[in-house]
Amino acid sequence: MQSMTKPLVQALAATLLLPGTQWVMAQGNNLSIEEVVVTARKRSENLQEVPIAISAIDEDTIQRAGIQRAGDYVGLVPNVTLVDSANVGDTQLSIRGIISTRDAESTFAYVVDGVLSTNPNSFNEELFDVQQIEVLKGPQGALYGRNAVAGAILVTTKEPTNEFEARVGGTVGNVGTLRGNAMFSGPIVKDKLLGRIAISTSETDGFYENIFTNQDDVVDYLEDTSIRGRLKWNVTDNLSLDFRGGYSDVSAGAINFNAGFAIPAFVEAFGAPNYNQDVNDVDFRFIFNTPGENEQTTTDFAVKLDWALDFADLVANVAYSDLEESLLSDGTAATFYGYELTPSCQAGRGELNSFTRPDLFGEPFNPFGVLPPGADFQGVYGPYNPLTCDGYQYQERNQEDISIDARLVGPEDDAIRWIAGVYYADIERESLVAYGADQGEGFLKQPYVDPTGPNPTDLLFWDEFNTEVYAIYGQLEFDLSDTMELAFALRYDREEREVSNKVPNVLNSGLNVNLLDPATGAPLPINPAFGNNPNGIPDRARDFSQFQPKATWNWAATDAVNVYASYGLGFRSGGFNAIGTEDLLNFWFNAGFGGPGEVVDAQLQVTDDYDKEVSTAFEVGFKSEWMDRRLRLNAAAFRTDVEDNQFFEFYAGPFGILRTVTTIDDLYIQGIEADFTFVATEYLTVYGGLGLMDSEIEKNEHRPLSEGNDVPQAPETTGNLGAELSFPVGGNMQLVSRVDWQYTGEMWFHTLQGEETPTIWNAFFGPGFNQNFSKSSRDAFSTVDLRVGLEGDNWAITAWGRNITDEEYLQEVIPTPEFGGSFLHPSALRSYGVDFRYSF
């Protein structure tokens, strides 16, 4: 960490001593940083006066930085990172080391135009026609609602205008990138009824090629068409209604992973070094025969009421959203010979093996090797290969929800300012994961396919969740003096959760040899939970509740310096893993259940449900402006202690693959962060940020060997440094150039970070074939983005490049300890193109 911190600090110091700094000081009345207005406390305030660590990104920055999705601005915020890999909506945001866990509830509130989104995929939507983005750090549940454990992200879109305006724009870039957008806004009834509609469409072939099919548009491709509209009705001078609706349709690649082993004993046994490979050195080969497809359609609608009463403002909204999503991709069953004897696997190995197609499989048995028919149960298959031997996986994640939020906001100029509100949400979520045989006959995209179908289902997890959320919240702010304020906020949440199993009580197809009864050879139930529940799997229900207090002290030490301190509690509800999870893992990995786990004895403690997560956070910070408001410098120090941190774990074995949520009993994350903006001259602005974190797993009964390790996805160092140059070049034209350098330090993705634990291979080859993840952290990396353009009064054209140094780095590492390796996803490479827009 010291090696990275020193150059960042030197860069900051050099920036503040740029030639021209003295000129700026001498000419103090000509230049200053514009005031930024934020709504972090449910009312409009100066960013520098709000006692919360906030990064605000305004409209100019959104345009000039080319921000189109969440990943484009996350790198501009210290101590915030993002993983975007398996599918378009499957993003994991880490704010100060607290991760929005895959398959669990989010850890941050995502609020669009004052409305909390409950759609799990909405965070990674296209960002167009946006006015401002605010990233709030630390627990925000007291005001922003459920799951705001780590913070909140507020997106404000542009309002309808009282004068007609319109805009069109587009992008042409490499790897088949095309984008188009249009916006129309204006009065329907002057001063009374105003409307706005914005449309965006984009597509890209992606950076990677399927070398088996020789297609360059089937791996990380993306097609997105979205439309959003707003209608604002000024009913009276004191009452307005704001209607907002949207629809998006997304088609994209999915599950684009390769794999690497982490078993040192295999290196010695087979003389092949890649059985214990550094994950950062994997040579990616996309060779799947089953198309990786992610299809999403989202519809949302919200209406917001603002009513100025005599004693307070009433703000209320009703929101509805509907998400339908499916994923199809290759499976992993070939690794354990599940479909080895099927006719399609035998035929495929005749044409595709390590001797006939080394271009696909690489050097034989280092680590993977595919043998032709006649050498059954002897190959070493990689996942997602061109053979039908690995089966397939099909997933659906559908959600329909409605929420109501209503609050009274007291007058802003009173000595005691207050907010009081209530919240309700009803969420129906369907989640299914199916695994089955790929017989080379195509795929029925449905939860269950019977044994006579083209792709029979052999293992199925299918649950329907219903959640009702009830909450009350409020905040009081007191003026202790002319310069000092004390605020208390409190929220109480109660979540009533139910889950019903929808898996049919049938047997599997019998095609997967690993899913047959060891004694009789007969097919087993399609879900392991039927073994203990032969007459049907019962429904499950649990309630979770929590008080979430927050206290904040704020002191205007001078006209230019504000100091603050806060204490707060965050909460996210517990939940349910897919029914059958516990039974399946016990059989394969734990002793005492009569399966291969007798030899493996991994001593896992995974259950079909998991507890709520509670975090306690302390923060002190300051916000300051210097040199007649030419230099803005904000900084904070924090510590967060978390109980029962919800952590995603991935299991692979002879049964296929399984997604679960486990809990880490106790951990802490502490750190510091700072950001600055410096108006160096009339034309040049320099900005940057630095985040440093220290973390530790203090207690983890599920994996006790991990105690003392770093918290996953909490890198020690993050930072950014950039500059924007804007000056006239004739007439009303401006030459605008912006460069952004972003750095993310080494990152672990699992609690195990070198401690050896048993793998399923011990059941096949005897003891000693344990995993060692000491080579499984993602290396530190940095990227550089550059944009250069001309802007007129109503037009702009910009040439741009992202990751212009073509840095190759991993997007995600998913370690699977009981398998003895990791699933790996690469990141985007260099992209470039031209943007244009015209307003009229």
Q: Could you explain the architecture of this structure?
A:
Pfam families: Plug, TonB_dep_Rec_b-barrel. Residues 47-152 form the TonB-dependent receptor plug domain. It is found in: Cell outer membrane. Residues 1-26 form the signal peptide. Residues 242-804 form the TonB-dependent receptor-like beta-barrel domain. The chain has 840 residues and is mainly beta. The chain has one domain (2-839): Maltoporin, Chain A (Beta Barrel), CATH 2.40.170. It is built from 11 helices and 39 strands. The strands form 7 sheets. The protein has a 22-stranded antiparallel barrel. A 5-stranded mixed β-sheet has the order 3-9-10-7-8. The longest helix has 15 residues, at 2-16. It is globular and about 80 Å long.
Let me know the CATH homologous superfamily.
TonB-dependent receptor, beta-barrel domain
Domain module tally:
1
Backbone structural class: mainly beta
Question: Any idea what the shape is?
Answer: globular
Topology of helices and strands:
Elements: H1 2-16, H2 21-26, E1 37-38, E2 45-46, E3 54-58, H3 59-64, H4 71-74, E4 80-84, E5 91-95, E6 98-99, E7 108-112, E8 115-116, E9 130-137, H5 141-144, E10 151-157, E11 165-173, E12 177-189, E13 193-204, E14 222-234, E15 239-252, E16 258-261, H6 264-270, E17 293-308, E18 313-330, H7 343-351, H8 358-361, E19 392-409, E20 416-436, E21 457-479, E22 484-501, E23 540-556, E24 561-572, E25 575-576, H9 581-589, H10 597-600, E26 609-610, E27 613-626, E28 631-653, E29 656-679, E30 684-699, E31 717-730, E32 733-744, E33 757-758, H11 762-765, E34 770-771, E35 781-791, E36 795-802, E37 810-816, E38 821-826, E39 831-839
Parallel strand pairs: 7-10
Antiparallel strand pairs: 1-2, 3-9, 4-5, 5-6, 7-8, 9-10, 11-12, 11-39, 12-13, 13-14, 14-15, 15-17, 16-38, 17-18, 18-19, 19-20, 20-21, 21-22, 22-23, 23-24, 24-27, 25-26, 27-28, 28-29, 29-30, 30-31, 31-32, 32-35, 33-34, 35-36, 36-39, 37-38
